[in-house]
UniProtKB/TrEMBL annotation:
Stretches assigned to coiled coil: none
Protein name: CobQ/CobB/MinD/ParA nucleotide binding domain-containing protein
SUPFAM superfamilies recorded: P-loop containing nucleoside triphosphate hydrolases
CobQ/CobB/MinD/ParA nucleotide binding domain location: 8-217
Provenance organism: Segatella maculosa OT 289
CDD domains (alphabetical): ParAB_family (cd02042)
Length: 260
């Protein structure tokens, strides 16, 4: 009997706050740096942005000898290929994954879903209801935050608090935080968030351009990639490692039958 992988979505109604970026960064860190096996489902129809990123990554490797050497070393050490990216509309995303898992001999720990930034699409709500966990990036922009909190409150009521779903929680986390520490403004926002019954992760991600850094034409210093984990140089100070560790402490993949 195959184990059940953990279904996770970084999801928000507001665009530009990092859901696709965190999907890729977390997936790559878990797959290449932590040794987990996973699948990413790209539901960003019709552009399929993560699948397009994989194509850019592959082209970058093709024209960069240093990255070719890095890829060869990584494959030799991990003894496994890059993670699978499935393209599907939100309406059929969960069924697409289940069909893939039924027809492939894979030892999958996680499945990450990158969904459109709207709940006006019935398929998005349906897919979110099939998630084990939902993580939502938030920023201290009033308009963006109000929109995201409205979205999160709806998800909590319709999905997380619904005993008919398997969802175990929606968790918010601060992204694009200015400065080294959160200001009193964040405490005020978190008070409102607490009143809505929405948990916030301890890890806050700083506002840094490295989260947009993809494969370079020269060298091997890269951050956001579907083929490599974030480079150690750029990982420092990014809080990505801390974010992934906190997520793992919540989802507890071993509870789903992870094999060592």
């Amino acid at each position: 009997m195959k184990k059940k992988p953990v279904f996770i979505a970084f999801s928000t109604q507001k665009g530009g706050v990092g859901k696709t970026t965190f999907t890729v960064l977390t997936a790559s860190y878990l797959h290449y740096a932590c040794g987990y096996n996973l699948i990413v489902v790209d539901c960003d129809y019709p552009q399929f942005s993560i699948n397009a990123m994989r194509q850019r990554d592959a082209q970058g490797v093709d024209c960069n000898p240093a990255l070719q050497e890095l890829a060869a070393t990584q494959f030799s050490e991990l003894q496994k290929p890059t993670y699978t990216i499935l393209c599907a509309t939100a309406e059929v995303a969960v069924d697409t994954v289940r069909e893939y898992l039924d027809t492939h001999d894979s030892d999958t720990d996680f499945v990450f879903f990158d969904l459109p930034g709207t709940i006006n699409n019935d398929g998005v709500l349906t897919t979110l209801s099939g998630m084990d966990y939902i993580f939502t990036p938030i920023s201290a922009d009033r308009i963006s935050l109000e929109s995201t909190l409205s979205f999160s409150a709806i998800i909590k009521e319709a999905i997380t608090d619904n005993t008919d779903t398997a969802n175990k929680g929606i968790y918010l986390f601060w992204n694009m935080v200015d400065g080294r520490e959160k200001t009193p403004l964040y405490a005020m926002y978190e008070k409102v968030i607490a009143e809505l019954g929405l948990p916030v992760l301890k890890t806050a991600v700083p506002n840094t351009t490295r989260y947009k850094k993809e494969v370079m034409e020269e060298g091997t210093t890269l951050f956001r990639s579907t083929i490599f984990p974030a480079s150690r140089t750029l990982l420092r100070g990014s809080r990505l490692k801390e974010l992934v560790e906190e997520i793992l402490s919540i989802v507890k993949p071993e509870a789903y039958g992870r094999k060592e």
